[in-house]
Amino acid sequence: MNLPVKACLFDLDGVLVDTAKYHFLAWRRLADELGFTFTEADNERLKGVSRMASLDILLSIGGLSFSSEEKDQLAAKKNGWYVEMISKMDESEILPGALDFLKACRAAGLKVALGSASKNSGIILANTGLTPYFDAIIDGTKTQAAKPDPEVFLLGAEALGAATSECVVFEDAEAGIEAARRGGMKSVGIGSPQILQEADLVVPTLAAMTVERLNELA
Ligand code: B16
Ligand code: MG
């Protein structure tokens, strides 16, 4: 098949697995300790956002401010709880269609990379059995700038030896779609077309995605 792309770059949380629920439980526990309420609606603001930027948003909701040393301690505390939860994940937590689509991409000879803000992607991919499907893993341990900066995807393209115009990014967050656009890449939004308006194609989950549908990006 002569496809318009040669490489697929996948976001992790919200595309391959739903780790947002664990981030929420850990952030809520921190807010509880600090004495304010943190809701699921508040948690929407943290999706795709880096750990320290998430903490800043959380603290602004609580109307609190701390020194940078204290903030490091708070983020480490939250991460400890989060890691405890994701350490119990298994393959049943892979989102619908994600595994089949990863397999189909590989069978079609497409290169596959991860492009996630998370510094914990290694544990999540290992526990869900997804690690072997990736030719390259770029995550928050390898990047300086957060989405919508395209750095994470540019590093992915480079690791795969693909030109940016040959890459497609799969993302659930607006900032990730914007990062793909700034990086000169095509994008498939996973979620609602109202929210992911800038994506070249939007599907509700990867269960609706096939290698053939990549032709819609031409
Ligand atoms: P960590 P993604 C993002 O993952 C999450 O959506 C976001 O909520 C989280 O704060 C960020 O990773 C950092 O995660 O604390 O594990 O380093 O969507 O970019 O895969
Ligand atoms: Mg995401």
Description:
- It is a single chain.
- With 218 residues, the protein is an alpha/beta fold.
- Helix 8 (174-182) links the parallel strand 4 and strand 5.
- The protein is globular.
- The protein is built from eight helices and six strands; from the N terminus they run E-H-H-H-H-H-E-H-E-H-E-H-E-E.
- The two termini are 13 Å apart.
- The protein is 40% helix and 11% strand.
- The protein binds 1,6-di-O-phosphono-beta-D-glucopyranose and magnesium ion.
- 1,6-di-O-phosphono-beta-D-glucopyranose (B16) is lined by residues 11-14, 23, 46-51, 54, 79, 116-120, 140.
Residues in helix, %: 40-55%
**pLDDT below 50 for ≥5 consecutive residues: which ranges?**
none
* Overall strand count: 6
Largest sheet, in brief, is:
6 strands, parallel
Straight-line distance between termini: 13 Å
Q: Which cofactor or ligand species appear?
A: 1,6-di-O-phosphono-beta-D-glucopyranose, magnesium ion
Q: What is the overall silhouette?
A: globular
Structural class: alpha/beta
User: Over the alpha carbons, how many angstroms does the gyration radius reach?
Assistant: 17 Å
Write down the overall mean pLDDT: 97
Instruction: Count every helix, treating DSSP H or I runs of 4 or more residues as helices.
Output: 8
Strand order of the largest sheet: 3-2-1-4-5-6
Strand content: 5-15%
The topology string of helices and strands comes to EHHHHHEHEHEHEE
